[in-house]
Amino acid sequence: MGNMKKNYKLEIPEYLSIDRYQRLQNLEHLSELGKLIEAIHVFTGIDRDELKTWDITDLGRVARDYSAIDTQEQFYPLIKLNDKTYGYADISTMSLGEFIDLENLCKKPNVNLHEIMAVLYREVKSHKFDNFIWNVKHNVQISKNKVDNVFKWYKIKKYNSDDRVVDSNVMKELPVPLALGALSFFLSTASLHYLNSLTSLERPVAERTMMKIAKTTTMEALTHIGGGLRQYILFPRQIYSPSLGETVSLN
């Protein structure tokens, strides 16, 4: 490559990890060239001073290659990371402490993304599956087990804020498409959960009708986050988790 001092064999990763994603945030204080150098440094580990000796055309070409990495949101309730199986925390069973911590962490979602994932994904302690059927996605194993309501088929480790600090370091390795998908799913279902907590007396008929339409639209959108919950559904008209409120057909 041009005037490079060394020859490098650069590999384009299949996915962007949370750790790399966070390191690419808040670069506004840098010049455009500075951002380019920092981005390549994060992906390749090549020393910044070495990168400054490259031709600008080489920097741009490498940056374009890395910009093609998939970051589309994808949500999966059961994943396997570093030989441990993690399950997504069903919002209907969350404690007040979990909600408070999530509310605080979500004030700075990019900075705290690994900690948010440590709340939303916790180690599976027991399950009702005979075994897990796995598929690989972004170098992470994804469960393909089909059941009527996946959240009822496993129990995860009880939430502890001290454990979150330790678990969050593991979550830095999680592919960011899975993290952003889980965050989107939480934010959407949290809104639905709040609406469902209101009694029918608190809502006029017209408002309840509009809510049903909004729920249907939201849940249909959620089923398209990397397949969403649809991959776990056995029957064409299976509904989303009954614990979230009124039944809404996915078809």
Task: Tell me the layout of helices and strands.
Layout: H1 18-23, H2 32-44, H3 48-51, H4 56-67, E1 78-81, E2 84-88, H5 96-105, H6 113-120, E3 121-127, E4 134-137, E5 140-143, E6 154-156, H7 161-171, H8 176-197, H9 205-222
Antiparallel strand pairs: 1-2, 1-5, 2-3, 3-6, 4-5
Features:
6 strands; 251 residues; single chain; 6-stranded antiparallel beta sheet; alpha+beta; 9 helices; elongated; 11% strand
Number of helices: 9
In the sheet with the most strands, the strands line up as: 4-5-1-2-3-6
Q: Which overall shape is indicated by the principal axes computed on the Cα atoms?
A: elongated
The secondary structure category is alpha+beta
Distance between the termini: 53 Å
Radius of gyration: 21 Å
Which percent range describes the beta-strand content?
5-15%
Helix proportion? 40-55%
Number of domains: 2
Helix/strand order, N-terminal first: HHHHEEHHEEEEHHH
Tell me the major beta sheet.
Answer: 6 strands, antiparallel
Overall mean pLDDT stands at 77
Low-confidence stretches: 232-251
Compute the number of strand runs: 6
